[in-house]
Amino acid sequence: MIGTASNGRTISITGLGCHVPERVLDNAELERLVDTTDEWIMERTGIRERRIAAPEEAMSDIALPACLRALENAGVEAKDIDLLVMATVTPDMSFPSTGAILADRLGAADAAAYDLSAGCTGFMYALAQAYGMLAGGLAQRALVVGGDVLSKILDWDDRSTLVLFGDGAGAVVMEPVAGGGFLGFELGADGGGGVHLWLPGSGSRHFDEPEKFVKMNGREVFKFATRILVQSAETLMERCGVTIDDVDVYIPHQANVRIIDHATKKLGIPSERVVVNVDRYGNTSSGSIPLALADAAADGRLRDGELVLMTGMGAGLTWGSALLEWTKEMAA
Ligand code: UT7
Asked: Which superfamily does 1-332 belong to?
């Protein structure tokens, strides 16, 4: 699916916030848990540490502070949100949705609220959905949340997945603005590649299986990631009539520094325009892009009129890119 902004309402991000659990799990501690080394993890992934939720912390507990910060940053009250999309593969439970739980905890009583599952690409899919509803006039003010608590569904004896992932969430408020805003989206899915990153015992297909942990074919996902990050971004830029030289801030999915470096080189974007925080958080799945976006904002890297390119990829296999002209000036 690919589309550029129509002549209708222009929609942008008007507030953002993030939250990660307090507990830091560094590579030295992982060395004591499984057969791995700080050297291997740094060399193959660039990850130094990640955050891990406390036993009693569920998805909504981590997403709630991110939502409150995003609302405050936008100067919007929860009661004025009429759409809440929560992208996650680790909801508090299958139902009620974490979106509905969050809407209730926030006091967003007028919001349509639900969960969306597209692996690590979830936040990009959620942005596109909210954009469509806002641009079409179906909603006026959306809260889009991306987050995961993958530590709860990892096999803590499997070194090949344990070292990669961390927990965290980010949220954005989306509203009609005076100009700029989202220029287009490119989203896709290849269910045939789904077996390379999956949680077989989590639903109705293998409900009687004891296997409740993430399984991953790292090399296949790596090949997919390096190809799709470049392909999706280039397809979208071409459709929007921009080149990589026009992009001021590039936010790729934070899975592995090697994957990010590959995309950076292939796209031909200077590394100082690329946002990287995978060293501090690991791969936070649906939380990855909103956490990086919030980091970029905190560093003063998101200024009015700048062009932001975001590309996610993950389980599904799925991918998604968005181009956004950063603006916070509200529509009249
Ligand atoms: O959002 C998407 C989520 N997933 C991803 O992005 C994952 C994409 N894939 C990757 O990032 C990389 O494939 C990994 C980081 C997972 C693995 O790196 P690699 O360079 O592809 O390593 P490999 O799978 O080819 O394994 C090389 C060796 C193997 O040993 P042998 O068979 O050569 O003896 C592994 O058993 O490294 C071993 N290994 C480890 N050694 C120390 C695998 N995990 C570890 C570990 N510590 N944690």
From this structure: Thiolase/Chalcone synthase (3.40.47.10)
